[in-house]
Amino acid sequence: MAQSKKLPGGITRNNREMADGRTIRYYDTAGQNRTAPDMRPVEAQPLIGELRLDPLVNEWVAMAAHRQGRIFLPPKELCPLCPTTGELLTEVPESDFEVVVFDNRSPSLRPPTGDWALPDQVGPDTDLGTAAGKCEVICFTADHGKSFKDLTAKRVRILLEAWIDRTEELSQEPYIEHIAPFENRGEEIGVTLSHPHGQIYAYSYVPPRVEKMLTAARKYKESTGKILFDEVLAREIREDERIIARNDRWLAFVPYASRYPFEIHVAPLHSVADLTGLTDSDREAFPEIALEVMKRLDGVFGIEMAYIAAWHQAPVRTGRDVLRLHWQITSVRRAPGKLKYLAGSESAMGAFIMDMRPEQSAAQLREVKL
What we know:
twelve-stranded antiparallel beta sheet, 6 helices, HIT family, subunit A, single chain, about 25% strand, 17 strands, three-stranded antiparallel beta sheet, alpha+beta, 2 domains
């Protein structure tokens, strides 16, 4: 693994080893010298978990019992994602940083040892597997009190480059099949650390939602010869009523059949399979629309909205001819003090019911004064 790497946008990545052998990667723009050692005592890392097949739906479930003891909503003065200062020794040894990515201390998925293969799916008799993969944490800023919407355009550009870099590098691992960068914000959706950060999950299998999107995209391509997501974008542009923001490289819209009170898809107009396919022009234009979308979301009710923001992209080794990159932001808040709970129909049956029309939430987002 290269210790230093030059990236587009004037960004340099520097890798350093943490006390327990994990890797931390600094993404910098000012030529910083990253030499601060991790002064914490060495702790044993958890063993790899189990991977079990639910044969009723042919879906893999990772068992990671070691995560029960992970840190939960610590006060700011004990935040493990802040820079190291004084006696507070954190996951980031340096006293300041721009964007950092490091291997998760309590990962759901871990790199396997030796030869590894996903067990064959044979119903109830499917072999027990190991939860192979990679889980990384990405911190957006050293400032504990900030949120994505508070970042500068320059910082969002660095963040995007970090997502691209990790997608490119993780794709080279033979046991990785799909890479999903995402951000959770808000205790309402289960956030355990309030510092502005996201995660990157690299799976050893194709996750269920991606499998469903792949099946739909292949069927559409076979019957029409066209790319399904490209046609979705064309419809949104043609109908116009669900678009909330756009520039010459990106489009942000509320999908026609949204599942959540506030759901936004942000997609490049230049059709690509994954983050690594974004052009320089795409990368330069992303911060503008990303920040606008997040400010509009928080502006709807004038409060910080709990959300999940996840990148959907083609798997590493399949479906790259039919699946297309997009950023999906979903919020369960339907009004101040009211959440949409995923109850019987949604959680038990997987059948979503929306209490408001997508055109209504799109109008509310558009009407926000920035």
